[in-house]
Amino acid sequence: MQNKLSWSLVALAVSATYSMPAASQTKPETLVKQRQAAMALQGKYFNGGLRPMAQGKMPYDAARVARDVGFLDALIRMPWDGFAASTKGVKSAATAAVFSEPAKFKEAQERAQNEVTKLASLVKGGDEATIKAQILAVDKACGSCHEDFRERQ
């Protein structure tokens, strides 16, 4: 009896493994919503504090910078899998170039991620001027990607 139970559990585990890819497929509309949510949160932490501090429009707060950069460092990696080919026809602010120029889009993603990673490491050093300059470098990388791959708003 115990041997039958063991084989039944093995069979169940194997069948579950093979059915996972079909169950894990996400609707294109959901992918778009998820990538938009990640981008909105990036904007919240970047535009709500980091950029204004770097531009001198808001007092510099090292603790807030560290917190916001930590969030941004995680968020910058989140939206990209939401740009699956299945989302091409879903209404969004993404331009056709996202799908027609995937290598260029991937390069822009990596540039933004690299600039944020560099910012995260600089925050640990605490030099305000260097951090502000890197925040502006992140702004430039993100803006460049939006210029090429986001509809004008």
- What is the total number of structural domains? 1
The proportion of residues in beta strands is: under 5%
Q: Round the Cα radius of gyration to an integer and report it.
A: 21 Å
Name the quaternary structure: single chain
Distance between the termini: 66 Å
Report on the structure:
With 153 residues, the protein is mainly α. It has a single domain (27-149), classed as Cytochrome c/b562 (Four Helix Bundle (Hemerythrin (Met), subunit A), Up-down Bundle). It contains 6 helices and no strands. The chain has helices at 2-24, 28-54, 62-75, 97-100, 102-125, 128-149. Helix 2 (28-54) runs antiparallel to helix 6 (128-149), helix 3 (62-75) packs antiparallel against helix 5 (102-125) and helix 5 runs antiparallel to helix 6. The longest helix is centred in the first third of the chain and has 27 residues, at 28-54. It is elongated, with a radius of gyration of 21 Å. The chain starts with a helix and ends with a helix.
Quick overview:
By secondary structure, the protein is an all-alpha fold. Helices cover 75% and strands 0% of the residues.
Salient structural properties:
single chain; 153 residues; Four Helix Bundle (Hemerythrin (Met), subunit A); elongated
